Amino acid sequence: MKKQTGIIILSIILVALVVALVIGLTGSETGRTVKEKQIKIGASLPLSGKIAYMGQHMQEGIDLAVSEINAKGGINGKPIKIVYDDTQGTTKGGLDSYNKLSQIDNIKIFLSATTNAVMAAAPLAEENKQILFAIATASTTISKAGDFIFRNTLLAQQEIKFLANSLNNMGYKKIGLLIIGNSGGESYRQALKKEFETLGGEIALTEKFEEQSNDFRTQLLKLDKSDATAIICVAHTQETGLILRQAKELGINKQIVGMFATEGPSLIEAAGEAADGVLYTHFFDPDKQTQLNKQYNQKYLLAYGRESEPYAALAYDNVIILAHALKNCDPDDTICIKTELYKIQNMETVTGKTSFDSNGDTTKEIILKTVRNGKFVLY
Fold it and tell me: Is residue 86 domain-shared with residue 135, that is, in the same domain?
């Protein structure tokens, strides 16, 4: 009797083990199948810290593009999955984010933003033959970061040439510079110096500030005492807002001019009425009446209850551009993806026609904008 009981118990155990093994194998296979049916893209963005607004807008644009693509069946039947990670816009954050997404999440295609974070990850992405597609990064160093490094933005050299000609035509011959102390700021400084001197103008004074600064009064007072007739600010949106407010509080009446990073809700929040009258270069006109722009603006408004921010539009375009390249490639074949990206010429996107040059850079149509009654409008 005991022997029969033992046999029965042993049989039950064996059956249980077989069932568990089958379930385990089936579960593993299901996991692999799900994984194989997804195209994972890492997004290293400043999701916290002083420029978190930038990351938030980019995330909105990315999510909107992904939802559209996936609603249509994904790319060759595979949905896109975005894995977000926070860089805080710093060098360390960019490196940590890249390592985590690459080594833990096994991602080979990356979206990133801010010069510090992008340049921290770029050498490793290039070495590992992984696609790194930057959003709105200005530094000239990115142009030489490698064949697998791309970016979709208004390049500093092009922006400065347009701005220099515009200000020269307005009669501003001597300018002062108030620039952020990083490689992006230095790229702008060098380009500004070259372009203004070429036109017979002069940089009267250059003042720098550290990233994350809140007080610009000392630099503004020095620039006000110089013989510069306009002050060009190379700064993030909130910083430019603080600069405008502090300049007004100090009674400085010189024309203040910004770059495309000027535009954003945090500018108005920081500057208030002092924002009115600022001039700045840009690439995005939300009122542009192309069919693509109309559709995008309607979808964005429906999704988020407000008009699109420029960073959102750029990020949206990044995903659409990647999806275009991925149609002809295996998601793991980054050499194929790289080749397809370089082939893109005059592709219609929300932020204008997009083409890639030999450095993986894009060009944008440039416009001059201002603030009137708290609204961002064409100048």
Answer: yes
